[in-house]
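Sample pair:
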Amino acid sequence: MAEIRVSCRNRLLLWLFSVPSFLVCLLFWSNISIANAANTPVQTDQLKAVSETFFDERKLASLLVQVRIDGENVFSHAQGQAMPNVPATAEGHFRNGAVAIAYMAATLLRLAEEDIVELDAPIIKWLPHLPYADKVTPRMLANMTSGYPDYVADAGFIEGFYNDPFRNWTNKQRIKISTDATRVFEPGNNWDYSHAGYVILAEVMEAATNKPLKQLIQEYILEPMALKQTRSIDTPYIPDPVIHAYSAERGIYEDATFWNPSWTLPQGAVQVTTIGEMARSFDTLVGKTGFLSESMRQQMIAPDLVGFGSPLKGCRSCHTMSRNFYYGLGVFMSRDWIFQSPLFGGYSSMVATLPADRSPTGERITIAVATTAREDAFPDWTEDLQNLADTLTRLIAVEIVPDNGLAPSRHGSD
């Protein structure tokens, strides 16, 4: 097992860019298309064919898809099994991972708009004993430029996780791993994906409001959007119906559904959701002005970091941002699309939105995909693991907007 765990290190790090049944609502079975007011055709039969072919060729256990145009659900698809002999359905719950980072960033922006948190003020005001708190700001934590080393890259953490995937990890434990590690760049001088940064950001938000993060997300995101099936749960529990996840990351193909997800995000931001609510919430949050003010929404998705950053020895994800792949506040961007694509514990998903103000037709388009994989999906789970939801999302985007899809790779030149 020791040899396998060393190899698994890279699999756990994939979540960094993390670095997503029966047919539920297929609107038409014949070869016709749906067009909304701006006449973007959606060939539902072609989307169904692409989804089913991908399911078979990539050896998926379950597949959930939803496509929305201007807020309308125009295509839904569910295929495979939630667990042996139980069909996967659109009502199935799964872990949404880093999608909750977008919720955190949006909550932070709301707090800034209410003058509760100043985005560019040093966090020493709230965390006086944290190293570098006099130089780091909430904005740096939110856009991954704070320089706090990621605990997920720590060898001891990785070994501990794979030895006991049911272990509970507290915010305090993970922050200590980060601050004990060697910092490789000063705050604001480079970009490096850091789960630790968002754990620290949660501590800032809680100190500034005197409220737990779970309550803040509930008040600022879940309740206003009427998200009834998206819940912050800091235990391995998932409400029925459950889309079970499977993984061979520890050297044996096993049910990973109830691995403890506490390591992934700060307490209060570890969530479950459904495919419909993941699509609708992301669409509402980044697809248009309204939920956030235009000023705050633009801060969330602005290409401010394009051209920023550089490769750095000892930094696993430091690189120069390009228009193909850059970061905002709590979200990734690829060309005109905004997305999150978590991959961990046997779950992979992606939600991507082309906002109306970036769309050539003036329509906003959102694609959400969630997958689980069969044992034979990857030749070697310790070397070949991929976010298959990410791959399918990009294929669907090309079907809908052939000339305005996501970049084929995250780091390629534009």
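The chain is about 30% helix and 15% strand.
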